């Protein structure tokens, strides 16, 4: 006879083609129990800044609550790839009940950085911020004069 249709708030806020933070997203953020402690709208990724310092690039990624063992850094095909995998298990035993929770989250970002001296890349995780220094290498000659014989 009558049925319930689930309400998807994200579809409502996109009806005019613009993404914006509304009252419901503010409530979701406040009550969010994500193991990462923050929420990036629509994507679930961490915030990242890339600075060109002349002779090197500096990448800073916000990683509150993340341990260095949960982060994997790769540089391949001129891309720096930052991947975070967090697995959490909570076991709580009290007098009359048993409580178990498991969470697994994964996030990944990549940025194109060409002509990097991969042997001298340095990364540190301090106070919830991952700082990666990527020294630039001398760019390969893109123009070569060929002698005709």
From TrEMBL:
InterPro entries: A-crystallin/Hsp20_dom, HSP20-like_chaperone, Small_HSP. Residues 39-149 form the SHSP domain. SUPFAM superfamilies: HSP20-like chaperones. Belongs to the small heat shock protein (HSP20) family. This is Hsp20/alpha crystallin family protein.
């Amino acid at each position: 006879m009558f049925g319930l249709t689930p309400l998807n708030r994200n579809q409502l806020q996109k009806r005019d083609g613009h993404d914006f933070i509304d009252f419901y997203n503010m409530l979701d953020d406040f009550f969010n129990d994500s193991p990462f402690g923050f929420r990036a709208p629509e994507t679930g990724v961490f915030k990242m800044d890339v600075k060109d310092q002349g002779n090197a690039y500096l990448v800073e990624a916000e990683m509150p609550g993340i341990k260095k063992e949960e982060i994997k850094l790769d540089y391949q095909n001129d891309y720096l790839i930052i991947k975070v995998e967090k697995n959490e298990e909570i076991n709580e035993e009290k007098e009359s009940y048993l409580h178990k929770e498991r969470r697994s989250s994964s996030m990944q970002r990549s940025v194109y950085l060409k002509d990097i001296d991969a042997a001298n890349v340095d990364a540190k995780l301090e106070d919830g911020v991952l700082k990666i220094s990527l020294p630039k290498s001398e760019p390969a000659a893109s123009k070569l004069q060929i002698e005709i014989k």
